[in-house]
Structure formats: structure tokens, C-alpha cells
Write a structure and sequence with these properties.
This is DUF732 domain-containing protein. The protein is mainly α. It has a domain at about 95-175. It is about 55% helix and about 0% strand. Helix 5 (about 115-130) runs antiparallel to helix 6. The two termini are about 75 Å apart.
Length: about 180
């Protein structure tokens, strides 16, 4: 018993000490300070050198100062305009079933954002989830969240109760239009 207590205390002290060392080693400063220094060494093949050759060797061993290359001084690249029609249409066309779904929502007082892409993707989810046997309460929760996103995208404020009611309208409209194959 005494050995395991001593072992546990030793490990705790070592952990705290190691953590303290790691914290002490780091800092928030990630910038380099100072300038790099270069060391120049020259070697001669002959054992004896004259003062003239030593002076000549030290004069040629220092590196010449260079200017930055073209890439470092080039002006910033200007963005090019996107070609017309790139990468294709920005909105997917709504098919007849999708339009029937949107009409059903409108008839029930639900306003969709934009061209109805969010609403149609929500309806597609409803059909897919029901065909895969996802429980109705999970579908309702997901649809309620999407109705909130739809309302936010259209600039409408909606309470949680209103979103739940609208979710039921979505589910019913999807079952009556898109889920019928």
C-alpha cells in the first residue's frame, strides 16, 4: 500500500514538473529577431602563405550583397474576371413535382426563400428518410430545423412553435407531391 502511494505521488510530481517545464519553454513570440550572421572561412592548400595571398583570399571570400528577385518586387496579382456562364447555371431548374410542392406550401401560407431550393431539398430529405424508415420524430426535428433556416434565409422571424407547425406543412406537402413516385 505504501509503495503504490509513493509511486502515485512520484508520478504526480513528475507530471507537474514536466508540465511546468513545457510551459516555461514556450512563448507567444513567433517572430525572429536580429539579423542572420554568416561565417566566412577560407582554407589554403599551401602550408605557407604570403600576406598578399591572405589579403586577396579574404577579399574574395565575402559574399556580395544582392537585391531581391523579380518575384519579391512584383506588383500584387490582380484577380481576373470570371468568364460568363462559369461554372454553369447558379440555380437548378425546378421540375414539375418540385413546383407542385412549392405551390402546396404557398397554398398553406408558407413563404420560401429564393427559388425554393432549400424547401425542395428539405422535401427530398423527407421522402428519402421516410423510405428508409427513419422515425417520424427524427424527421420532424430535422425538418423543423430546416424550416428555421428557410425562414432566416427569407428574412422572416419564426418562433419554435411556428417552425414546428410549418414543419408539419412541409411533411404533408412532400408526402402529397414529391414522395409520390
Amino acid at each position: 500500500m505504501r509503495t503504490s502511494l509513493a509511486r502515485t505521488l512520484s508520478l504526480a510530481v513528475l507530471s507537474v514538473a514536466a508540465g511546468g517545464l513545457l510551459v516555461a519553454c514556450g512563448s507567444d513570440d513567433s517572430t525572429a529577431t536580429g539579423s542572420p550572421s554568416t561565417t566566412s572561412t577560407t582554407t589554403t592548400a599551401a602550408a605557407t602563405t604570403t600576406a598578399e595571398s591572405t589579403t586577396e583570399a579574404s577579399a574574395t571570400s565575402s559574399a556580395p550583397t544582392t537585391s531581391p528577385g523579380d518575384a519579391a518586387t512584383a506588383p500584387p496579382e490582380q484577380p481576373q474576371p470570371v468568364p460568363e456562364g462559369f461554372p454553369g447555371p447558379t440555380e437548378a431548374p425546378v421540375d414539375d413535382r418540385g413546383q407542385a410542392f412549392l405551390d402546396e406550401l404557398e397554398k398553406n401560407g408558407v413563404t420560401v426563400a429564393g427559388n425554393g431550393e432549400i424547401a425542395i431539398s428539405t422535401a427530398t430529405y423527407i421522402c428519402s428518410a421516410q423510405s428508409q424508415g427513419v422515425p417520424a420524430d427524427e424527421i420532424s426535428t430535422f425538418v423543423t430545423a430546416n424550416v428555421g433556416v428557410e425562414a432566416s434565409a427569407s428574412g422572416t422571424q419564426m418562433s419554435a412553435e411556428q417552425a414546428g407547425e410549418a414543419a408539419q406543412i412541409y411533411i404533408t406537402a412532400a408526402q402529397n407531391t414529391l414522395c409520390k413516385a
